[in-house]
Specification:
By secondary structure, the protein is of the alpha/beta class. It contains 14 helices and 23 strands.
C-alpha cells in the first residue's frame, strides 16, 4: 500500500477526540521518558503550559532532566494519573491501546494526540520546517544544519533525536522563523500507524538514504519505499528536496516529483559534489563543488565519508538559505558533535573507549570504516549489541558479517530480550561469530555484558580502540569498562 501524506494508516482508530482543543492549559504525557517525548514535554513547559508525565521505566539522566525542568513524573501507568483531567493527553508511539492510562483517557473522553501532532500545534506553528529524513544519518545531519543556522544568527528551533554537544540538548525553542526536525519514518501511535514524517509540511527536505529497517513495522524494502513515496509525492511544488545521489531507491523515488530536486554526493552530474578529502585527526578537510565550481574547502572534527556526505547536504541547504560560505566554514570547524555518535567516553592505560549508536548493518560498516581511517595504527575492537527490533531478527543475519570487515577483534553480545522475537525469526549472535571466523576474523560471542567487560579488561592492551555500538544503554558498559581497565 502507498501511504497518502498526512493520512493515517490502515489500522487508524477514528475518534473525534483525536484533536487538540482550542484552549489548552494542562498537558499530560504518557511515556514521557522517551528522548522525543521528554524533549517535547520540556518545550511545552517552557512555553508556559502545566505539564505532567508518566512512564514505566524512570531513571537518570532523563528523570533528573525532567525534574530539573519542574515536570512531575508518575512511576508506572495508572488511570489515576489523569485524575486532574488534563486538557490534552500526548500519547507516545510505543504506548498500546491496552495501557491503563489510555483506557482511562477514553473513558473520561479526554482530548489526545500523537507527538507529531503536538509538535505541529505548539512548536512548529508559524515556522518554516526543514525536515531531515532517511534510514541513516538523520541525527547527525539535523545537528550539523542546526548548528550552522544558529552560528549564522538564524536562532532556529530544533527537535532532534540526539544530544548536540554545542547545546547539551536535543531541542531548543528559537526566535527565528526556521525549525529543523528529524523526520522519523517509524509509526506515529497506536491510533495512527502512518509514519511520523507524514505529519510535516517542510519547505526544505534532506533525504539521505532509503534502506530496509524497522522490521517490526515494515514488511520489506518495497514497503519501506512505499512509505517514503507517500511522503515525497506530497511535497509541495514550492518545496526543495536535497537527495543523495548514490542510492537506487532514492533515484526511483524522486524521478517524477513535482518539487525542486537537488542532488548531492559523489556523482559528476550532481548539484553538490564531495571533492578531495584529507584526514588530519582530529579534523577532516574536504572540498565541496557546487555544480562544476569549487564552492569551498571545509574542515570538520568528524570522521568517515558518510559524515562528510551528511555535512555536504547541510552545506547545500545552508547555501540555499543564503548563508555565506565563510559562515558555514566557521561553524563547521567549531561543531562539537553529538553524544553517542563516535563519542570518546574515556581513555585508560592507553586504551580508548568510544561509544556509537550504530545498529543497522550499513551504519555499523560505515562507523567501523570511519574510525579505522582515523586510527589506522590502533587495533580496533568492535563491540556490538543487537538490540533493535530489526537487529534482533534474522533479516540481516547474512549481511552483518560484511559490516565488521574493518575491525581487528569483534565481540558480539547475545540479544538482551530474545523473548521479544518469535524463535523462528530470531537473530543468532553465535551464527554471526561463526560466519566472521569463517571469513578469517577474530570474533567472540558473549552471553551478557559482564562477560564482555571481563574479557576486554584482561585482553585489551595499550594502543587499542574499543568501539561500542548499541542503540541502547548496553548496561552502562562504557563507564564499567573504563573502571575495569
Amino acid at each position: 500500500m502507498v501511504f497518502a501524506r498526512g493520512k493515517m494508516g490502515t489500522d487508524t482508530i477514528s475518534t473525534d477526540k483525536n484533536t487538540i482543543p482550542d484552549v489548552v492549559k494542562r498537558i499530560h504525557f504518557i511515556a514521557v521518558c522517551g528522548t522525543g517525548m521528554g524533549a517535547l514535554a520540556c518545550m511545552v513547559k517552557e512555553l508556559g503550559f502545566d505539564v505532567t508525565g508518566s512512564d514505566e521505566k524512570i531513571y537518570p539522566p532523563m528523570s533528573d532532566f525532567l525534574a530539573s525542568k519542574g515536570i512531575p513524573i508518575s512511576s508506572g501507568f495508572d488511570g489515576r494519573n489523569l485524575s486532574d483531567e488534563p486538557d490534552l493527553v500526548v500519547v507516545g508511539n510505543a504506548v498500546p491501546r491496552t495501557n491503563p492510562e489510555v483506557q482511562q483517557m477514553f473513558q473520561m473522553g479526554l482530548h489526545y494526540c500523537s507527538m507529531p501532532q503536538a509538535i505541529n500545534r505548539f512548536i512548529g506553528a508559524g515556522k518554516k520546517q526543514i525536515l531531515v529524513t532517511g534510514t541513516h544519518g538523520k541525527t547527525t545531519t539535523s545537528s550539523l544544519l542546526t548548528w550552522i543556522l544558529h552560528d549564522a544568527g538564524w536562532d532556529p528551533t530544533f527537535f532532534i533525536g540526539g544530544i548536540l554537544q554545542n547545546f547539551d540538548s536535543n531541542y531548543r525553542l528559537g526566535n527565528g522563523d526556521v525549525m529543523v526536525i528529524e523526520g522519523d519514518e517509524y509509526d506515529t501511535a497506536f491510533f495512527d500507524k502512518g509514519a511520523k514524517f507524514l505529519h510535516y509540511d517542510p519547505f526544505m527536505t534532506i533525504l539521505i538514504r532509503v534502506e530496509f529497517d524497522h522490521a517490526d513495522i515494515f514488511r520489506d524494502l518495497q514497503h519501506t519505499c512505499q512509505v517514503f513515496d507517500g511522503f515525497l509525492s506530497g511535497l509541495s511544488t514550492e518545496s526543495a528536496l536535497f537527495a543523495y545521489d548514490n542510492d537506487d531507491n532514492i533515484t526511483a523515488l524522486v524521478r517524477d516529483l513535482q518539487c525542486e530536486v537537488i542532488s548531492y554526493g559523489r556523482e559528476a552530474q550532481s548539484g553538490w559534489r564531495l571533492g578531495d578529502v584529507s584526514i588530519a585527526p582530529p579534523q577532516t578537510v574536504f572540498d565541496v563543488f557546487k555544480g562544476d565550481t569549487l564552492f569551498g574547502t571545509f574542515s570538520i572534527p568528524m570522521m568517515g565519508e558518510h559524515n562528510l556526505l551528511n555535512t555536504l547536504s547541510a552545506i547545500a541547504v545552508a547555501d540555499k538559505l543564503g548563508i555565506p560560505v565563510e559562515s558555514i566554514a566557521d561553524a563547521l570547524q567549531r561543531f562539537k558533535g553529538i553524544k553517542r555518535r563516535q563519542e570518546i567516553r574515556g581513555e585508560k592505560r592507553g586504551i580508548i573507549v568510544m561509544d556509537d549508536f550504530a545498529h543497522h548493518p550499513t551504519a555499523v560498516h560505515e562507523t567501523i570504516r570511519a574510525v579505522k581511517s582515523f586510527y589506522p595504527d590502533r587495533r580496533l575492537v568492535a563491540v556490538f549489541e543487537p538490540r533493535t527490533n530489526s537487529s534482533m531478527r534474522k533479516v540481516f543475519q547474512n549481511v552483518y558479517p560484511h559490516s565488521f570487515q574493518h575491525a581487528d577483534l569483534i565481540c558480539i553480545r547475545e540479544p538482551s530480550f530474545p523473548e521479544k522475537i518469535p524463535s523462528e525469526e530470531r537473530f543468532s549472535s553465535e551464527q554471526l561469530v561463526a560466519d566472521l571466523k569463517d571469513g578469517g576474523k577474530t570474533a567472540h560471542c558473549f552471553p551478557d555484558t559482564d562477560s564482555i567487560i571481563d574479557f576486554l579488561a584482561g585482553s585489551a592492551t595499550s594502543g587499542d580502540l574499543i568501539l561500542v555500538m548499541s542503540s541502547g544503554g548496553f548496561d552502562n558498559i562504557h563507564e564499567r569498562l573504563l573502571a575495569a581497565l
